Amino acid sequence: MLREFQEFISKGNVMDLAVGVIIGAAFGKIVDSLVNDIIMPIVGAIFGGLDFNNYFFGLSSAVNATSLADAKKQGAVFAYGSFITVVLNFLILAFIIFLMVKAVNNLRRRLEAEKPAAPAAPPPADVALLTEIRDLLAKR
């Protein structure tokens, strides 16, 4: 069982997937910071200077706090501002991944277009022999 596990781990696809997950997690943090620290403050300033993360309404009468963290301590809240922030994170991340995939596809197409065409394979021996006989008969 240990040997099978070692074979599984040593395959290239598993290692590529692991690297992709790690880089994706780090990239997700960058996008999260971009949205939370740069984009959402600008959007908040446009919509009245409020922090989008603090857009919520309480689901019980006991919730009367003005910040989301305090409201969650008081009871259940519907935090739609946080949801909007997460959706914006996703859209930005999806757009960036789309641009990366598009760039890779364009590069592949360009490389295939530049690749010289493979030389035509020589005809099979019987076809070459028949062609030679035909040419000799045509000369007579």
Biggest beta sheet summary? 2 strands, antiparallel
Oligomer state equals single chain
Separation, N- and C-terminal Cα atoms: 75 Å
Give the H and E element order. HHEHEHH
Radius of gyration: 31 Å
Mean pLDDT over the full residue set: 83
Shape: elongated
- Main sheet strand line-up: 1-2
- Give the structural class: mainly alpha
Contiguous uncertain segments of 5+ residues: none
Number of strands: 2
Tell me roughly what share of residues is in helical segments.
over 70%
Written overview of the protein:
- Pfam families: MscL (PF01741).
- Keywords: Cell inner membrane, Cell membrane, Ion channel, Ion transport, Membrane, Transmembrane, Transmembrane helix, Transport.
- It is found in: Cell inner membrane; Cell membrane.
- The structure is a single chain.
- The chain has 140 residues and is mainly alpha-helical.
- Helix content is 72%, strand content 3%.
- The protein contains five helices and two strands; from the N terminus they run H-H-E-H-E-H-H.
- Strands 1-2 form a two-stranded antiparallel sheet.
- The longest helix has 35 residues, at 12-46.
- It is elongated, with a radius of gyration of 31 Å.
- 4% of the residues are buried.
